[in-house]
Amino acid sequence: MADRANIAFSGSPIERADHIRVDDDALAAQMNWRARVLRLDGLNPVFDDSGALEWGTLADVPETAELCFLGLLDGKACFAPVPDEGATGPAYANPQIWSAMQALQPGELATYGGARSLVDWHARHRFCARCGGPTKLAKGGWQRNCSSCDAQHFPRTDPVTIMLVEHEGRLLLGRQPRFPPRMYSALAGFVEPGETIEEAVAREIWEEAGVRARDVQYVASQPWPFPSQLMIGCYSVTDDPELTIDTTELDDARWFTREELEAARAAGDRGTDDLIFPRSFVIAHHLVTWWLDR
Amino acid sequence: MADRANIAFSGSPIERADHIRVDDDALAAQMNWRARVLRLDGLNPVFDDSGALEWGTLADVPETAELCFLGLLDGKACFAPVPDEGATGPAYANPQIWSAMQALQPGELATYGGARSLVDWHARHRFCARCGGPTKLAKGGWQRNCSSCDAQHFPRTDPVTIMLVEHEGRLLLGRQPRFPPRMYSALAGFVEPGETIEEAVAREIWEEAGVRARDVQYVASQPWPFPSQLMIGCYSVTDDPELTIDTTELDDARWFTREELEAARAAGDRGTDDLIFPRSFVIAHHLVTWWLDR
After folding, report:
1. Closest Cα in chain A to B128
2. Where is the Nudix hydrolase domain (chains A, B) (predicted)?
């Protein structure tokens, strides 16, 4: 089994307290002087002097601010404000995000990631996809209601499969054009309407690498907050290693031996001459580690 | 391992042909006299004389119709038209859906389910959630583009965990208020931003039944097209069977012995005096069957 306890963006200590979200009176009672409000710079985290996430109080936010109820921590209600604008560019290019992933304690990173996905969704859903009318935050931020038609909208999480493929002791990894040189990772793709996890894995490997995968096995999952994916990590096997790479998606894909992967892992962030091992905060890191260590 | 080959709504014979979606010329070339267009009555299936899904040609649909490219079947392009209106009521109350689930061959049911989710999403996303402007179908129905701002929107699939909980040889099942009398099924709930599959399973069981689950294990998944969920079926264990039922979600939840479950399965659709076994087209059926037979 993968070491699921150390997967980045999981393990938030906040209790989601669903029963409060759905009860207007209970939610109002939580909006008191003890409540904590996550400080955000747009969608980016703000750090306090100790390098932890910074929290303020309800007095710090305008009365008109839309607030999401994240849940309870040490008996105190935790909120996050919806920013004026949602995510516009890719998060991986943002230095504040990189420093957060490297600096924050695991539980705090999970709290930040979950809050970010939620408030970003609100910022990008101020209108009703059904009728175009304005929407309003409801249920403590776990719903938006259309003011024109009666449509209800809910925060979105997109399931994505990310997979290892093995052929006779070697693993298939690929690189996207945006990756730094020598960095390879597991192939991945969104689960589409009408397919199982296993079907999505097989389709992605076929589309991206021209390889037929069998015996798909679930390994571990990760919430990924850029903007809001559920990464479903799997392992599979192929009988024929011949690659036909989809060059619109991938720069390259190759088979790596156990020795190459072990060497890259041991080399840390700088990698070997051939390979930089997937970073510790991505689930591909856990998948390859699981495969090497099992 | 669960018998994944027989999970309803999976196993469509249509090849999704992603490379055609993203290539305007290739897509236009497929819109010829050989192309097949799925007949739908709103979102409901239409059957031909043999009880299979009925297909027409491009000549049957208005030139202004929005069409989704489902993929290739026997070398022919398959399309489905976006209906005027998306899903409004719950599908489980619709007799045409029930008869489709019972009558269609597995591959055809999967084709219908995937097409339904996709065209329903289009019908409910004619406007941009970011700016309220009108949107237009793009990429053969795998995207919508806003005509006012530059936002791109993609078909939505919601990951849902559905789980068995075992305590000393008994399984926890619950019933929603809308279920027929004596019908119990596995507990379930949406995966939220910021949590893993395992965290979502533990949270749902805690919220709905007041039980702490451990050792969550993935069993099987199912695409569920009402409107578009990815059901992620899991198994878990608890050490303390005392229940605190969330009566806003559940009518009842109870522990069932192996003998009770075996008897209900053997009794078929009519069930025993205590229990109707989950229907064959829901993943709960496969989860409980997997548990009984392993």
Report:
1. A129
2. 155-282
